[in-house]
Amino acid sequence: MSTKPVLLTGASGALGRQLTRALAAKGFALRLTDIAPFPDPLPAGAVFTKADLNDGVTILRLAEGCGTILHFGGVSVERPFEEVLGPNIRGLYHVYEAARREGARVVFASSNHSIGFHERTETLDADCSFMPDGYYGLSKAYGELMGGLYWHKHGVESVFIRIGSSFPEPVDARMLSTWLSYADLARLVEACITAEATGTSVIWGSSANARTWWRKDDREKLGWVPKDTADVFAGQLSGKLSGDPVVERYQGGAYCGMEYTRKA
Ligand code: 15L
Questions:
Q1: Rounded to the nearest whole angstrom, what is the distance from the C-alpha of residue 262 to the centroid of ligand 1?
Q2: What is the gyration radius of the CA atoms in the chain, in angstroms?
Q3: Residue 154, Cβ neighbours under 10 Å: how many?
């Protein structure tokens, strides 16, 4: 296993905080960064630097000597284009330039919203077409494409985790398909860091849910098998629907329904 430090962007976000705790407990040396202050006590072996993803010089400096960049920073929900542009597009470029310079692997928090306009009747393999459901999802598709560019041109490895819904528990019927437990996420990210070689790998970021819409991906390369499941919540959640036909038709759910103006 690489003993080089791991840079984590978005450390102060919900998933960043979970990963900080889990990876520090496993003994990884962590460089944490976020535009917001880190809200928890810093674990042993972790250093936090407040930084804006728009600031390329600082991102390069933070990545110096790192073997892996866990890129969980940026806008994490649907927002107007101008708000997504800086952190999620320019910031991504800064992360990949830093990875190129350091020869580091990038683990990118992609999202199901990069493929959100696929219908729920479809079962998707990881090589399915991008069908973003908003500017946020579009930025995630862009990130995966950028990772491809840096692999083919510079040999920078990436794992793209298309995260479904990573929350303490699933909260509605859709999440019976998309839920990813925090523990499965942490085990997945650890596998991404320690894998011998990843090339560019795409992983469906969901637990072992019987109602999944997702099938083949590159998890065998990482040796990751999810252990948790949303199935135990089916009794209480299967009737929890939105009542909106657009939201219920597509995998991206509520994001598909936002600002939706297409005539039936
Ligand atoms: C995401 O990508 C978001 O970051 C998260 O807040 C949820 O909306 C999730 O997708 C989801 O689709 O449930």
A1: 23
A2: 18
A3: 13
The protein residue whose alpha carbon is closest to atom 10 in ligand 1 is: 165
How do residues 50-93 score in pLDDT, each as one tens digit? 999 999 999 999 999 999 999 999 999 999 999 999 999 999 99
The two most distant CA atoms of the chain are separated, in Å, by 56
Contact 113, 88 (CB under 8 A): no
Q: Among residues 165, 162, 160, which one has the least CA distance to residue 230?
A: 165
DSSP 128: S
Its pTM stands at 0.98
**Which residue in 136, 142, 150, 255 is the catalytic one?**
136
Residues framing ligand 1 (Cβ under 6 A)? 76-77, 111-113, 163, 165, 178
Among this protein's residues, is 136 annotated catalytic? Answer: yes
Distance 165 CA to ligand 1 centre (A): 5
DSSP type of residue 167: S
Average pLDDT over residues 238-261: 98
65 C-alpha to center of ligand 1: Å? 32
CA pair distance 201, 221, nearest whole angstrom: 8
